[in-house]
Specification:
By secondary structure, this protein is an alpha+beta fold. It folds into two domains: 1-44; 46-102, no CATH class. It is built from two helices and three strands; from the N terminus they run αβαββ. It has a three-stranded antiparallel beta sheet with strand order 1-2-3. Strand 2 and strand 3 (94-101) form a beta hairpin. The radius of gyration is 24 Å and the shape is elongated. It starts with a helix and ends with a strand.
Length: 102
C-alpha cells in the first residue's frame, strides 16, 4: 500500500475525532457560561422575583401501522417541556423550586 494511501486512511479518523473534540469543547464552554449566568441570577433573587428555566424534553410523533406517505410526512407532533420556577424564601433564606411538565 502506498504511503499516501496510508496517510489518508489515518487522517480521516483523526479529522472525525478533531470535529467531535471541537464540538465537545464548544458544549463545555456554553455549559460553563450558562451555569455561571444561572447561579448569578439565583443569588440575586428576592421575595418578588423568580427565575424560570424551560428545558426541552422530547418530541413524540404519532404513528400508526398503516400510514400512507402523505400521512407520514404531514403529521403533527407533540413536544414535551419541563419548566423549573425558582423563588426565594426570605424567612428561611433558601430556594424553593417548582416543576411543571408540559
Amino acid at each position: 500500500m502506498p504511503l499516501e494511501t496510508v496517510i489518508l486512511i489515518i487522517q480521516l479518523p483523526v479529522q472525525n475525532v478533531k470535529q467531535k473534540l471541537i464540538a465537545w469543547m464548544a458544549h463545555h464552554a456554553r455549559k460553563t457560561y450558562l451555569n455561571i449566568h444561572v447561579r448569578t441570577n439565583l443569588e440575586e433573587l428576592d421575595e418578588e422575583s423568580a427565575v424560570m428555566i424551560v428545558d426541552y424534553k422530547m418530541r413524540i410523533l404519532p404513528q400508526s401501522a398503516c400510514e400512507t406517505e402523505t400521512e407520514f410526512f404531514g403529521k403533527c407532533d407533540w413536544s414535551f417541556y419541563s419548566v423549573l420556577v425558582y423563588t426565594k424564601n426570605m424567612e428561611q433564606n433558601r430556594l424553593d423550586v417548582q416543576v411543571f411538565d408540559h
